Amino acid sequence: MSKTWSHIDILIRILHIIIMLGFIGAYFTGDNEDLHQVHMMFGYVLLISITARVIWHFLSPRISSTTPFGIKKRSNIAINAIKKSLSYSNFKSIFSKNSIHSISVALFQTSIVLIFLVIPIVVGLGYATEHVNFSLKDLHEFFANLFLALVLLHVLTLILNSIFAKRFQGWSMLKMTFSDAKITKFAALFLLIVIGTFSFFYLRM
Fold first, then answer.
1. Phi-psi region of 166 (alpha: psi -120 to 50; beta: other; left: phi over 0)
2. Residue 104 domain boundaries
3. Does residue 5 lie within any of the structural domains?
4. Which of 104, 134, 143, 202 has its CA 20 to 30 A from that of 161?
């Protein structure tokens, strides 16, 4: 059977949704003492999801039919988009439709790279605040707010890019498909079981 290579599969889509819900859950439970255990659970779910995404980046080309974009690929896309926006010969052209589109693409890819880098810092500082030194709470909140700013940048540039493309580009990360290789679907199911089991027992601790 011939493989149809892509950079998005069902596992990546599920991870994207889990990361999105994990961020929302962690952010809005952060200041509620009664939901502190839930807040910590969301933080660990984020860390599990990012770890799984990194592992899948290296594993999927060998066992599945996808070649996910990594930090290097997205950084190159962002750099090329910036170069394209700066290639215009005069100041007026920088504010042209094509230039703004290129800048938006660059910021979109940059936001993804920075989100992946900031999540482990936020979770690590959250753990250190809880178990090592409570004085790290302000630093934890600073990076949590930085994370929020990056998410907002991600969403805004997604909307702007969708306007330029005249179609909602985020649909590719939300539309579930079951045409992937069996190993990919098994990995997605395994991930859901791991996160579900972890969340259940963590909240019962």
1. left
2. 10-203
3. no
4. 143
Q: Tokens standing for 98?
A: 């094509």
**Amino acid identity for residue 113 in this structure:** V
| Entry pTM | 0.81
**What one-character-per-residue DSSP string does 112-167 give?**
HHHHHHHHHHHHHHHHHHHHT-GGGHHHHHHHHHHHHHHHHHHHHHHHHHHHHHTS
Residues 6+ apart with CB under 8 A from 31: none
Residue 1, domain member (yes or no): no
The number of distinct structural domains making up the chain is 1
- Chain-centroid distance of CA 7 in Å reads 14
- Given this model, what pLDDT does residue 33 score? 84
- Tell me whether residue 3 is in a domain: no
Instruction: Show the tokens assigned to 122.
Output: 């936020």
**Partners of 22 in the beta sheet?**
none
pLDDT per residue as tens digits for the range 104-151: 889 999 999 999 889 999 989 988 988 888 888 899 999 999 999 999
In which residue are the tokens 């700066």 written? 86
Cα–Cα distance, 64 to 183 (Å, whole number): 6
In the chain, the largest separation of any two C-alpha atoms, in whole Å, equals: 62
Per-residue tokens: 41: 């659970």
CA angle 134, 139, 143 (to 5 degrees): 135
Per DSSP, the three-state class of 66 is strand
